[in-house]
């Protein structure tokens, strides 16, 4: 019945019949006219599923998988109205930022509301663009569908039909099932809400290239206002990368179709560029560069694309119940971000090493950056605890999943190789678990460590308890030396900030001061306060990547008596953000240690054997 009625919807659309003539059933039937975009706003119309209860709550997500941050997408909705089949308006009441209660819901036929895009949002809680929405009339539309289309909680498993009227010549790129495409119309279907959210759509004039493998069709779609990068430019590099991933995964990619959506822009946005993964696609928000800079940008995208594609393995096909049964409006966090993001980040670089896209020396430099980056965070905070509280208490520690999380993956891979005498690695363990679980079956969060230990050895359990669930620092030098990678500590002078602890504000993408040791004279003279966000030091912009060099490093030698000027963003009593310039003379320096990774040439027989197994030679 669903498929028959969906087909009827398509027939009516092809004759431009009004949505008021659509037969109501148990399907969500959405209608959007992109030609009517006005001031970065679109009107959305929904013929709702049949509701049998007296009241019903219509919702948009507070959070979606992969973001690890609450955005409250309902705040972009306005003017929501409900109607019965005769056009009579039904009473609605906004229950919270993401929910509307509808009275006489058993008579409900149609909802209408307006959506503002998130790319132009000016609030403090900016949505990271790869999870956001863009409405640029006659130019480009980014449909992260959770920002446009809602659900009734009791009807999450119902089919969705998304009907778009579009400017002539526009093309909607997505891994959603396309059931109709003409010059002016496109219709996509999805079996349930999870699938709708999992498959973004980009509408623009087409710039697409397809890469075909025996088991997978991969489409690359590009929007670049400056025409600096085309889909054809990206395809050669991505084909090499996907071939490497395919070889690593045993000769078959982990999805039967995949779409890379690249949105290049000159917009400043939320302050950070990046991407968001899905089962069948990934969406990228990147700076639009001129033609001469395209090769550099394409190289930079290699690791990001590898990371996002590997997410088709974990957590999309291997995950706990917290992700498998994701609650869009009251999300529960898993304690295994080390697996979902950390191991994914590890494999994104390791696959390139193993398949010959980068050499070991270059890979060693990446390890250096990961070790140094991880030292910016609280290294004694158990990773499982950070994961559970990543939406709240430890939000500012989340970025460490891409630093220490990747190092956890590398450490595990080496130790599993050692314990199995070279016959098994971390990916082999994941492959076994994929056979047991897969996309539609979740493991229990509290059982994961025991399951991995049962497949490996008690020594792996000790690693988990000490360094992932525990507060001990991972002995990188000891573990990495097993495959001939030496981690050397090099002393240098840095400013003694007296035990100041830093965090990372995901809203402003700035480093933020969280704890201050008041007995440090330099800190007292400088006048920093808890909550200050770092903007610049001695005229140099400060961010996560430049912080270590600015406060002192091997490259930037700091000594007592140097002038020090820091600009911070600080809220006044009314909550208004203002820039404050703080000045002091460096009164105290201390010895710190940088990490240098050296690829050893002279190896023992055991080191050589383990290194050979690790590199898959």
Question: How would you describe this structure to a colleague?
Answer:
The structure is a single chain. This protein is α+β, with helices and mostly antiparallel strands. The protein has 4 domains: 2-204, Immunoglobulin-like; 207-301, Zincin-like; 313-484 and 600-617, Neutral Protease Domain 2 (Neutral Protease, domain 2), CATH 1.10.390.10; 490-595, Pdz3 Domain (Roll). 27% of the residues lie in helices and 27% in strands. It contains 16 helices and 29 strands.
Q: Keywords, please?
A:
5-stranded mixed sheet; alpha+beta; Neutral Protease, domain 2; 27% helix; Zincin-like; Immunoglobulin-like; 27% strand; globular; 617 residues; 4 domains; 8-stranded mixed sheet; single chain
| Structural class computed from helices and strand pairing | alpha+beta
Kindly state the number of beta strands.
29
Residue windows where pLDDT falls under 50 for at least 5 positions: 1-18
Report the CATH topology name of the largest domain: Immunoglobulin-like
What is the CATH class name of the largest domain?
Mainly Beta
Strand content: 25-35%
Please give the CATH architecture of the largest domain. Sandwich
Main pleated sheet: 8 strands, mixed
């Amino acid at each position: 019945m669903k498929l028959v009625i969906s087909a009827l919807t398509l027939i009516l659309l092809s004759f431009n019949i009004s949505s008021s003539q659509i037969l109501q059933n148990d399907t969500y039937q959405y209608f959007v006219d992109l030609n009517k975009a006005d001031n970065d706003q679109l009107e959305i119309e929904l013929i709702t599923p049949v509701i049998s209860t007296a009241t019903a709550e219509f919702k948009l997500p507070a959070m979606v998988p992969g973001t690890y941050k609450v955005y409250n997408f309902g705040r972009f909705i306005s003017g929501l109205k409900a109607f019965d089949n005769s056009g009579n308006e039904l009473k609605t009441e906004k229950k919270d930022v993401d929910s509307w209660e509808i009275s006489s819901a058993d008579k409900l036929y149609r909802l209408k509301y307006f959506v503002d895009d998130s790319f132009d949002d000016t609030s403090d809680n900016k949505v990271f663009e790869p999870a956001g929405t863009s409405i640029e009339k006659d130019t480009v539309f980014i449909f992260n569908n959770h920002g446009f289309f809602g659900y009734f909680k009791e009807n999450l498993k119902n089919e969705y039909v998304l009907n778009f009227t579009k400017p002539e010549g526009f093309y909607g790129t997505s891994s959603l099932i396309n059931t109709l495409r003409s010059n002016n119309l496109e219709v996509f279907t999805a079996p349930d809400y999870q699938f709708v959210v999992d498959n973004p759509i980009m509408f623009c004039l087409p710039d697409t290239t397809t890469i075909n493998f025996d088991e997978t069709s991969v489409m690359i779609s590009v929007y670049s206002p400056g025409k600096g990068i085309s889909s054809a430019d990206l395809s050669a590099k991505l084909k090499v990368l996907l071939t490497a991933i395919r070889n690593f995964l045993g000769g078959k990619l982990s999805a039967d179709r995949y779409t890379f959506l690249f949105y290049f822009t000159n917009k400043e946005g939320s302050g950070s560029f990046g991407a968001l993964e899905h089962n069948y696609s990934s969406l990228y928000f990147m700076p639009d560069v001129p033609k001469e800079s395209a090769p550099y940008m394409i190289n930079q995208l290699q690791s990001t694309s590898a990371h996002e594609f590997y997410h088709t393995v974990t957590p999309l096909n291997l995950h706990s119940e917290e992700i498998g049964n994701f609650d869009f409006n009251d999300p529960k966090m898993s304690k295994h971000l080390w697996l979902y993001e950390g191991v994914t980040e590890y494999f994104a670089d390791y696959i390139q090493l193993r398949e010959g896209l980068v050499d070991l020396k270059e890979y060693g430099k990446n390890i250096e950056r990961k070790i140094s980056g991880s030292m910016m965070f609280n290294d004694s905070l158990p990773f499982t605890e950070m994961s559970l509280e990543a939406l709240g208490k430890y939000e500012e520690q989340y970025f460490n999943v891409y630093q220490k999380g990747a190092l956890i993956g590398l450490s595990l891979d080496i130790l599993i190789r050692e314990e199995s005498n070279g016959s098994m690695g971390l990916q082999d363990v994941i492959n076994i678990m994929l056979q047991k679980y897969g996309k539609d079956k979740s493991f229990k969060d509290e059982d994961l460590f025991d399951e991995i230990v049962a497949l490996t050895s008690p020594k792996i359990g000790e690693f988990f308890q000490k360094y992932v669930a525990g507060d001990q620092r991972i002995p990188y030098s000891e573990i990495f030396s097993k495959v001939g990678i030496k981690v050397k500590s090099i002393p240098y002078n840095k400013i003694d900030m007296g035990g100041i602890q830093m965090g990372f504000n995901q809203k402003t993408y700035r480093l933020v001061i969280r704890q201050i040791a008041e007995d440090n004279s330099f800190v007292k003279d400088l006048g920093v306060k808890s909550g200050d966000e770092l903007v610049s030091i001695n005229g140099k912009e400060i961010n996560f990547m430049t912080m270590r060099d600015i406060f002192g490093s091997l490259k930037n030698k700091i000594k007592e008596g140097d002038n020090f000027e820091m600009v911070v963003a600080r809220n006044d009593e009314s909550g208004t953000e203002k820039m404050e310039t703080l000045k002091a003379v460096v009164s105290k320096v201390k010895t710190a240690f940088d990490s240098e990774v050296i690829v050893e040439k002279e190896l023992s027989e055991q080191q050589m054997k383990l290194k050979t197994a690790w590199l898959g030679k």
